[in-house]
Specification:
The protein is an alpha/beta fold. 37% of the residues lie in helices and 19% in strands. The strands form 5 sheets. The protein has a 7-stranded mixed sheet, sandwiched between helices.
Amino acid sequence: MNEMTMTIDAPAQPVSKAVTVLKEHIVEVISDSGEGAQRCGQSLGAIAAKMGNGVWTVEIIPAEIRPPARSVAGASGNRIRIGAGPVTNGGDETGLVIAFNEQVLLGRVRAGELRSDCIVLLESMWREHPDPSIAAMYVATHDELVHAGYRVYEIPMERECLKIVRDTRRGKNMFALGMLCSIYSLDLQLARNQIELTFGKKHANTIASNTALLEAGYRWAEDNLDFKFRVPAVRSSEPQIVVNGNTALALGILASGMEVCAMYPITPATSTSHYLSDVFEKVGGIVHQAEDEIAACSFAIGASYAGKCTVTITSGPGFSLKQEAMGLATMAEIPLVVVNVQRGGPSTGLPTKAEQGDLLAAMFGGHGDAPKIVMAASTIEDCFYSIITARKIAETFNMVVVVLSDANLATSQQPFPRPQFSASWVAPPVDQSAIPAGAKPYDWDATTGLARRFIPGQPNGMHAVTGLAHGRLSNVAYDPETNEESLHARSLKLAALQKTLRTPPVFGDPSGELLVIGWGSTKGAIEEAVETLRAEGAKVSSMHLRFLQPLPPGIKDIMKRFDRVMTIENNWSDRPEDAIIDEDNRRYSALAMLLRSRYLVDIDCWSQARGEPIKPSTIYRVIHDRLDDEPRREGES
């Protein structure tokens, strides 16, 4: 049944309402850029997490930095999934949305992001706008939404906010936050505390006005809305932090003991340096903003050569520019951590959108044989710990370690247990002891390819460092034997690391009809879909890979226990149903291509490259269809 509430004055008595208990709910807050919808959503996620709810937030970011106001493609905001238990991804369709104008809302409707019975809280100021064309657009969209079955409530946010502040673009978001705290039965005092935290560097008047707006929104919703939800929460017995993936990366850099981060600003990686710029100097660290991506990587290599492993952070276009410098670090065997927060490509591509398109570039980019270690973070918590692991590996093996994140992890928030610092995380002091007489700067071990790292200033350690082919004494050497010896040693280091890795765990039964393999930020959505299918009796399991070069041992043995294997990825693969595509020309998704070539197993794939995280319901449908198409084992009816 359709339901519409027109703009009304607050009644003398609050509206009577029952509280509906939900296992989970997804809410969106959307506006034009600059109206604070993203901050509202982030604050809601933090408040719910502090209540004890599982939370996953996803930023809704327009492709343009400042798109035209009231444009269908210009929605800016946040999607917040609130659960009674742990939440590992952004979920499926939205159940409630607050929209500051009807045009950004229309964009979300056309994108299929809203449930058919979605509750819409729509700013009503546009109905009486002095421009008749704007008023007509509002009325037409409003009526279209009501006719489509959405539960539309018109909310006088502008009018109510003007009672407190003059500029509603700097306040409407906190009014909306207050309404959401009422709707989801969240602790208003926690919300006040969150405002103090968010605006802690601002003037006291700013905190006071935002708190007043919060309380006004809460009261308005209590008095006027005829529905209320509660998602049961259980507060964790251990301290939690609520951060996005980029902040987790920055915290990992702090915890790892790295002291230099060199980068050039690039979406969606830049906020990592923003956080580090605020705190790094307090612990002796340096954030160097270089004039370009090549300079940033070169600066990091130079700092690392001086004795401490360093990190450079970028996204796809910057990663391409860093390739030659990464080759220098590989040739000179200087430890370096490179973080690639992937976005849609190629070229400038989709700067604000999510994609997993850089795996093969991370492994094989650059000229010549330049082996690099490649890891992929799969959760926000993993962003933190992956950096610590990457620093240790880079210094142990004197190699480039690439850590892949993506726009989905970068901007999403999720609570996880506050890390308990361990002294084992940080790098040991710089070794300034004398080099033994006769030791060579590249005295490669015959089994592992490893050689002692010489630090500038060590007695007896003076040698030349070059990007040219060189021998054990670091002397430039062009003869075939020396060239192959150095290539051989650098390749052995990958094999040596592989021998230390653990076999990845299987999510579900150790054998069955179908094994789904993924990497990176798709983990939560894949496992949610697999768990749903298993509850329905499907014989499906999944496996997620953290190390992609080298691949850990035991993968082929796991695959052999399943009738079929497929990958699910957020990148491109050719569609078999296209008339021109066949087995001779089909391009597989990146991980499928890698696994097929490594293990000579017929691995299928499904992928999408829509610039957005893959939803669990989409993965459920894909796996369900594959299981329906799958030939049964011999002897089964």
